[in-house]
Amino acid sequence: MNTQLPSIAQAKDQAKHLRGKMTEDGAPIGHAKSLELVAHQHGFRDWNAMSAAIGNGPPKGWAVGEKVNGTYLSQPFKATVISITMDRPGWFRVGLELDEAVDVVTSDQFSNLRKRIRGVVGPKGHSAAKTSNGQPHLRIDL
User: Where are the domains of the chain?
Assistant: First the structure.
């Protein structure tokens, strides 16, 4: 068994990649089978055992007091996690204290600086809410 386990999102991405590769090779498999094969690659008897071992906790490094990097309304930031709670499985409500305030307004007419931000991010580290140009409001690097 690997000592470094992927997150649930990373394991599902591995399964998706495996499914695509198997289809390319002429041996298509279903979603459930690809999850089982990924679990076996990590030394687990099945997907349920691997999923339980990984748990539904936040990604490593997202604990209160940890430093994170990302973007908020397309502005890069470095921040300290000041709160984190599970919103629903795989999604977390985070509070961040930014090292430096970011301007969340794109207009040259005025500015609006933010030093603290809150948002809900999913298993890939970004919010479901998007700006008008399609970028997630909040993205935390995994």
Answer: 8-54, 67-140
